[in-house]
Fold this protein.
Amino acid sequence: MSQKRDCYDVLGVARDATENHIKKAYRKLAMKYHPDRNPGDKEAEEKFKEATEAYEILADAERRQMYDQYGWAAFERGNGRGFGGMGHMDIEDALRAFASAFGGGMGGGFFEGLFGGMGGSRSRSERSRGADLRYDLEIAFEEAAFGAKRELTLDIVEDCGTCHGTGAAAGSKRETCTQCGGRGTVVTSNGFFQMRQPCPRCGGTGEYVRNPCPACRGQGRAKVSRRIELTIPAGVDTGSRLRLAGKGEGGARGGPPGDLFVVLHVRPHDLFARDGLDTHCEVPIPFHIATLGGEVQVPTLRGDVPLKIPAGTQPGKVFTLRGLGLPDVRGRSTGDHHVAITIEIPTDLARNTSDLLAAFGASVKETNHPRLAALRRKAKQFYSHKNAMNPTPGDS
């Protein structure tokens, strides 16, 4: 990773370049080094992959932010940032990304329309990378806090196990389409204009199956149920995206599989609330402890811990317990735990307890309730001001 060139240097753009500038710079390099314009040139192929990889990062706002913050380290496998595995793009990945960026087909189709067919065409029967898949997974708060392992069962399309992706029955094979000559496209002319469209006979594959495979009905692809082990790192949150390289849709005709992106959704908890890496909890305490002070046990992610309550603690007071929140998924820090105090009024008191409480109330002076005394002072000032502005008729 440390030997890879800076993405901005690869595309020749400034670090504050707009998305449009980045796309223009990539288009220029891709057209220069595309394999269809440089057949057999390994150096050009490497430059094409390098430029495509840089574009894939800088053209995606989330990837670009991660790259600006961490560099290539953001895309190392197993880092928990959701982009592990970038930096290992092969030529099929690069061609697929290029086609996605500019709306062309895999390989030479784009350049056939741009340069009148220079470089020839790529067979539609070549192996191709499988599609990336997204899976939304709801997890419990505890799983997000401590990490977990889950087993996912997905129905995924891949090469038919009977015909191995050919679509042809045993003893037969795919044959070159005679209508398009294996190109997968046909061209119709109308004056100065030419229109290229998929071959109606082979559907754009360049081949057809005379005796289709009975298992997949000649499609060469079948849906299978696959079990996938998922490791959820501690500290994830709603929106966290986990990438499982090679666990997406199977590639066509032996091509590499796509990736699976698992997007997490964390269920709310009835005890703990979350704000980033910090956790919050509301704890009711008896009024005599709030008055006299004492110690109470408060819940945290790591179990109950003692908390000293100073005498005269008021409702709404928040105590912060450092380092008892959630871990960062990268293991670099830990949040704090915030305890908000509420005063719980006792109910169903015994007669003698009620009498003692009444005697206590009679012994308390107004000076023992400074907030209540302040409230009454403010109210008195308000009424006095009100009466001065609106005197009662007959007052002298």
